[in-house]
Design brief:
It is built from eight helices and no strands. By secondary structure, the chain is mainly α.
């Protein structure tokens, strides 16, 4: 990845944050309550959910415990081999995020059932 100048958060960090937000909302847990449960500020939870800050593995584990799911459930799914080769959903998402970051953020805020075809 050397030489790859990326603007903004990595698409995987954005996807993890969106998955945290989706699961938290499904359980009707506020950002403040999640923050208290994992000993953070609600502002840090906001940054995680936007993908502005990367979630460490240990914090992902703690958040998943509070959200009553596996840490892997908060990770994006996909064909990683295809994505490395430059195709697949991850590459498409990176292009969309790079060209239209506000649109990408709005799409992440939609309920998942509205995004499926």
């Amino acid at each position: 990845m050397s030489g790859n100048k990326r603007k903004g958060p990595h698409v995987v960090d954005v996807a993890v944050g969106a998955n945290i937000r989706r699961r938290r909302r499904d359980l009707r847990i506020s950002q403040e309550a999640l923050a208290v449960a994992v000993n953070l500020t609600f502002q840090q939870i906001q940054k995680y959910e936007r993908g502005a800050n990367r979630v460490s593995a240990s914090m992902l584990y703690e958040i998943s415990r509070v959200l009553k799911c596996d840490a892997g459930d908060l990770m994006p799914r996909g064909d990683w081999d295809a994505d490395v080769a430059g195709s697949g959903w991850l590459c498409d998402a990176q292009v969309l995020h790079g060209r239209h970051p506000r649109l990408f953020a709005q799409l992440l805020a939609w309920p998942e059932d509205r995004l499926r075809v």
